[in-house]
Write a structure and sequence with these properties.
The complex is a heterotrimer of chains A (161), B (124) and C (89). By secondary structure, chain A is mainly alpha-helical. Chain A folds into two domains: 40 residues; 104 residues, Alpha-Beta Plaits (2-Layer Sandwich). Chain A has five helices and three strands, in the order αααβαββα. A three-stranded antiparallel sheet of chain A has the order 1-3-2, covered by helices on one side. The longest helix of chain A is centred in the middle third of the chain and has 27 residues. Chain A is globular and about 60 Å long. The two termini of chain A are 25 Å apart. With 124 residues, chain B is an all-alpha fold. Chain B has one domain. Chain B is built from five helices and no strands. The longest helix of chain B is centred in the first third of the chain and has 27 residues. Chain B starts with a helix and ends in a 10-residue tail after the last helix. Chain C has a single domain, classed as Helix Hairpins (Orthogonal Bundle), CATH 1.10.287. Chain C contains three helices and no strands. In chain C, α1 packs antiparallel against α2 and α2 packs antiparallel against α3. Chain C is mainly α. The relative contact order of chain C is 0.12. Chain C is flat. Classes of the chains: A mainly alpha (161), B mainly alpha (124), C mainly alpha (89). Chains B and C meet through α1, α3 and α4 of B and α1, α2 and α3 of C. Chain C: It holds the Pfam family MrpF_PhaF. Chain C: Its main location: membrane. Chain C: This is K+/H+ antiporter subunit F. Chain C: It is a multi-pass membrane protein. Chain C: It is found in: Cell membrane.
Chain lengths: 161, 124, 89
């Protein structure tokens, strides 16, 4: 633990360095290990506490589900953009948040921006509301329910908050 | 280059190009800034993914080993696109840009700008 | 076949860039202009990668990474400046 204060970040640095150089030669592996050990050691004093990932398998499933949703939602949005603009019914929606940590809210807001026809615009000061803009808003309650069920519940379970 | 590889690269390039075009078309066509935000964050991100997948296959063929470094740009864009969209939405709200007239819940805009909780009567 | 596809996709991306430019010049608000710039750099990445495929070279990947990073930072800095009047608080 003393050697690697941030194991996940170290692994990420290692992989990203090898990817950037697109090689697995011994020299690059040594250099990547050097960065993976030194950089977390230098910056560990600066970071805030983040909640730990409690259920890694659920996190992987969540990422896969979001990827699938991104593709379907993109096709949907593309059709909406090409289709008649007069029919679109945009609107602002306030979604009550159950996730309390900053990281959880960030992930939820990013997923909401990437997936269905919504862009997250703002979070209220007390971090209890997420304001989103929907491109085509038909049923407000249904949208809120789908965001809460589909995205917020897994995030809550992953971080256990 | 084998024919099947050419087909894969062509198809993903074309998908990417079409999505990029649709994203930019939406940017010109949609009536207000909040709606315009949707087209680049979604369509363009998928478009660039298509082009990057094509590039990945091509470079792997060119070099003779699996080259997945293009995934790095995809990952980076998937992380940054929502953040950029969020910041632009904040800017638009801060400048009180007018939304299209048919936008629902326009009364919420002031509370969003001030980052307050919405008034309780607007919640169903 | 690949050469024809590359030309077709290049035309698509160039039209997309022209549409972005139109939005950049026309406005009407400053947020629209930032959004147009943001979309423009995504299209530029696609164009550079496409040229990399056309020229059968992997050098252009580095340029694409740099554009991706600088593009995001510039969008964030512009928005931050307009929101707060200051980039680093």
């Amino acid at each position: 633990m003393m050697l690697l204060p941030m194991p996940f970040h170290s692994l990420l640095l290692f992989i990203v360095w090898l990817l950037l150089n697109n090689s697995v030669s011994p020299g690059h592996i040594v250099l990547a290990s050097f960065f993976a050990i030194t950089i977390p050691w230098l910056v560990t004093g600066m970071r805030d506490d983040h909640p730990k990932i409690l259920r890694p398998w659920l996190a992987i499933r969540y990422v896969l589900m979001v990827m699938k949703d991104i593709i379907t939602a993109n096709v949907e949005v593309a059709l909406l953009i090409i289709g008649p603009a007069k029919k679109l019914k945009p609107g602002f929606v306030a979604i009550p948040l159950d996730v309390t940590t900053d990281l959880g809210i960030t992930i939820l807001a990013s997923t909401v921006s990437l997936t269905p026809g919504t862009v997250s615009a703002e979070v209220s000061k007390d971090k209890a509301w997420l304001f989103v803009h929907a491109l085509h808003l038909e049923n407000e309650a249904e949208l809120i329910e789908s965001v809460k069920q589909r995205y917020e519940r897994p995030i809550k379970e992953i971080f256990g908050c | 280059m084998p024919f099947y590889l050419e087909i894969i690269i062509s198809v993903s390039l074309l998908t990417g190009g079409v999505f990029l075009l649709v994203g930019s078309y939406g940017l010109v066509r949609l009536p207000d800034i909040y709606m315009r935000l949707h087209s680049p964050t979604k369509a363009s991100t998928l478009g660039i993914t298509g082009v990057l997948i094509a590039s990945m296959f091509f470079q792997s063929h060119l070099k003779g080993f699996l080259s997945i470094q293009e995934l790095l740009i995809t990952l980076f864009l998937f992380i940054t696109a929502p953040v950029a969209a969020n910041m632009i939405a904040k800017t638009a709200l801060h400048h009180s840009n007018k939304p299209a007239e048919k936008t629902q819940n326009q009364a919420l805009m002031d509370t969003i700008r001030d980052r307050e909780s919405p008034p309780s009567n607007s919640i169903k | 076949m690949l050469n024809i596809t590359i030309i077709a996709v290049a035309i698509c991306i160039c039209i997309a860039l022209i549409l972005n430019l139109w939005r950049l010049l026309k406005g009407p608000t400053i947020s629209d202009r930032i959004l147009a710039l943001d979309t423009m750099y995504i299209n530029a990445i696609a164009l550079i990668l496409l040229y990399g495929i056309h020229a059968r070279s992997s050098l252009y990947f580095e340029a694409a990474v740099l554009i991706a990073m600088l593009g995001f930072v510039s969008t964030a800095a512009l928005c931050k400046y307009l929101l707060r009047g200051d980039i680093i608080e």
